[in-house]
Design brief:
Blueprint lengths: L25 H16 L4 E3 L9 E6 L2 E12 L3 E7 L7 E7 L1 E7 L5 E7 H14 L10 H13 L24
Antiparallel strand pairs: 1-2, 2-3, 3-6, 4-5, 6-7
Length: 182
């Protein structure tokens, strides 16, 4: 188990659709443990395998004191929407208001191959949707309205880490959401 470097915006692996996990072995369990340690160390509310350069459909989350993971997620979203701040460990220091479904039912598997269902609202729902987007090559700024997305892309170009060197991550005032505080 290790804390590994997180891939930054611009890394091609973040734009690829991750492959389904087909083998539930020691290597997968090590990946889940590395994802968890890296996420907690960052700190973040979630981390997907592509953010560590591994193109597999697996992510971890840490929301409201609960830590978990999901392999090969399949989501059902509620019709009710929420709008709130969202950031990403692959875009450190940036946070923008983003719309998401208020609730989610996520079905998938544990790292041992056992079926599991996770139900969540608010921040847990946001985290699950955000991390599943990573598995589909989608970054949260893709979900912003055009003007806000334009501002986000400008901020990315001007970010200290745009050269590939991430700054230290700061604890969010919202309890460690998906990235850093502004």
């Amino acid at each position: 188990m290790s804390v590994l470097p997180i891939r930054m915006f611009g890394d091609p692996v973040l734009r690829m659709k991750a492959q389904p996990v087909t083998v539930f072995d020691k290597e997968l369990r090590t990946l889940v443990k590395d994802l968890t340690e890296t996420m907690i160390d960052a700190p973040g509310a979630g981390l997907a395998a592509p953010q560590l350069g591994v193109s597999l459909r697996v992510f971890t989350y840490h929301v409201d004191g609960e830590t978990g993971h999901l392999v090969n997620p399949d989501l059902t979203l509620t019709d009710e929407e929420q709008f709130g701040p969202e950031g990403c460990l692959s875009l450190p220091g940036l946070k923008y208001d983003c719309g998401r479904a208020f609730g989610v039912v996520a079905k998938g598997f544990t790292m041992y191959g056992d079926p599991v269902t996770i139900e969540g609202t608010q921040l847990l729902s946001r985290a699950i949707q955000h991390e599943t987007d990573h598995l589909d090559g989608i970054i949260f700024i893709d979900r912003l309205d055009p003007e806000l997305r334009k501002a986000a892309l400008k901020a990315i170009r001007e970010a200290e880490w745009a050269d590939g060197t991430p700054p230290p991550v700061k604890l969010s005032p919202h309890g460690g959401t998906f990235g850093t505080a502004r």
